[in-house]
Design a protein that fits this description.
110 residues; alpha/beta; Ribosomal Protein S5, domain 2; five-stranded mixed β-sheet; 3 helices; 5 strands; 36% helix
């Protein structure tokens, strides 16, 4: 089950991530965690107006809910949207999020 990161103190932990990477549309800091999967979503004003930002957030959450079995266990990560992410179509967004999950799984040291 995915737990959503909502408190400011949890987002502050991402200032010193265990590892991080960038894709074309996301910056993802990752922290090791004991047995839980927690996800934060950060979408700044540069991405677009509130309608675009909220739509992107809903799409990301929908994809994560439907692909929970692919999510790595034992990690907390924050999806920080970069410019252009709100303009992605559903298929492109799905491929981009799959890249993110694949990179977390491959860089993971168990």
């Amino acid at each position: 089950m995915v737990r959503w990161i909502t408190s400011h103190s949890e987002y502050v932990d991402f200032y010193n991530p265990d590892f991080q990477f960038r894709t074309a549309y996301f910056y993802v800091p990752v922290l090791y965690s004991k047995g839980e999967t927690a996800v934060g979503i950060t979408i700044g004003r540069k991405i677009g107006n509130a309608v675009k930002r909220n739509l992107l957030k809903r799409r990301i959450k929908s994809w994560l809910y439907s692909n929970q079995e692919k999510l790595p266990i034992g990690f907390r990560f924050n999806l920080v949207a970069r410019i252009g992410a709100a303009d992605l179509q559903w298929l492109e967004l799905s491929q981009e999020l799959l890249k993110v999950i694949t990179q977390i799984n491959t860089k993971a040291v168990y």
